[in-house]
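Hi all, long-time lurker, first post. I run a small reading group and we've been trying to get comfortable going from sequence to structure in the token notation. Rather than ask abstract questions, I figured I'd post a concrete chain and ask someone more experienced to write out its structure so we can walk through it together at our next meeting. Sequence below, copied exactly:
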Amino acid sequence: MTYCVALKLNAGLVFASDSRTNAGVDQIASFKKMRQFVNPGDRTIVILSSGNLSVTQNAINLLEQHGRQIERRNIWNVQSMFDVAQLLGECLREVREHDGVFLAQNNIDASANFIVGGQLRGERMRLFLVYAEGNFIEAGEETPFFQIGETKYGKPIIDRVIRPDTPLADAVKCVLVSFDSTMRSNLSVGLPIDLACYADNSLRLDF
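-- Answer (accepted) --
Happy to help. Here is the structure in token form:
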């Protein structure tokens, strides 16, 4: 299981993900579920993933592959975060269309979800939740955060604390408490935690 969370605040964006993919009695496997696309001064994009690991990895790898083809519309030349979410959804659909039938034959769940957020030069910060079907919704004033994976244990603290005007430092602390609650309640979510913090209009990652 996975736990990922992203917050959209007036001051910036906070992203966090665990790294555990399974937690058997004698085997614990870890894979990064956060990918960053940064061109300082132009765009900063962070993607969090949950669901079938091969599907999420292949979708992001396809997104990267398209990014090396400068003649096509890609993550490095589109003009809005809406376009980025759309590209990611298209890559997810392509991977599921290619692999889904074969996974289904073995009763393997091919579903996957993404959170993608960031800022492109000339545009405001934006945060999107991309569903398994490739469609997506955007965070707003009423919903300043998204979660994917094992969400129920970490949600109450975020609901109580996070508001659009929450300072970034306080938001990071809240996210870490949210992860602590989730890990105490579910052994399939575990360390290490990947964390990224983005200050509004900086067009670079602070950490």
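A couple of things your group might point at:
The longest helix spans residues 81-105.
Residues 153 and 184 are 9 Å apart (CA to CA).
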